[in-house]
């Protein structure tokens, strides 16, 4: 089961306004992406202007897609990585580690 602050809600959203998590960046829509806390854990693009990628593949708007540990979700400048319970939040063996590092070095991104 999901743990942490968002584990107590059925759904949380990320965007520039009107969301649970705010990311103020031109690439992030007002209401960009939602995470449905499962089981199963799912991610949904909310019809954002720039789209949402999961492991580099665009998600269809308004269609919830399964989200497993190790998957990388890009919502504009924001990068989300799902970690299994007990897994370190920052790990050198995480498949997303290099991608997040690139975004940080470019001056934007969250993990």
Low-confidence stretches: 103-111
Q: What structural class do the secondary elements suggest?
A: mainly beta
Which strands sit side by side, in order, in the main sheet? 2-1-3-4-7
N-end to C-end Cα span: 20 Å
Task: Name its key features.
111 residues; mainly beta; Tumour Suppressor Smad4; five-stranded mixed sheet; four-stranded antiparallel sheet; 27% strand
Describe the structure in your own words.
With 111 residues, the chain is mostly beta strands. 8% of the residues lie in helices and 27% in strands. The radius of gyration is 13 Å and the shape is globular.
What's the short story on this structure?
With 111 residues, the chain is mainly beta.
Topology:
Elements (H helix, E strand, L loop, with lengths): L10 E5 L5 E2 L10 E4 L5 E4 L6 E3 L2 E2 L6 E2 L5 E4 L2 E4 L15 H9 L6
Parallel strand pairs: 1-2
Antiparallel strand pairs: 1-3, 3-4, 4-7, 5-6, 5-8, 8-9
């Amino acid at each position: 089961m999901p743990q942490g602050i968002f584990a107590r809600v059925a759904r949380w959203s990320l965007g520039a306004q009107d969301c649970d998590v705010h990311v103020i960046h031109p690439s992030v829509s007002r209401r960009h992406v939602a995470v449905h806390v499962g089981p199963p854990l799912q991610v949904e693009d909310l019809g954002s202007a720039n789209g949402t990628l999961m492991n580099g593949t665009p998600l269809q708007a308004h269609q919830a897609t399964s989200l497993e540990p190790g998957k990388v979700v890009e919502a504009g400048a924001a990068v989300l990585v799902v970690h299994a319970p007990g897994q370190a939040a920052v790990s050198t063996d995480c498949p997303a580690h290099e991608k997040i590092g690139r975004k940080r070095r470019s001056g934007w991104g969250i993990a």
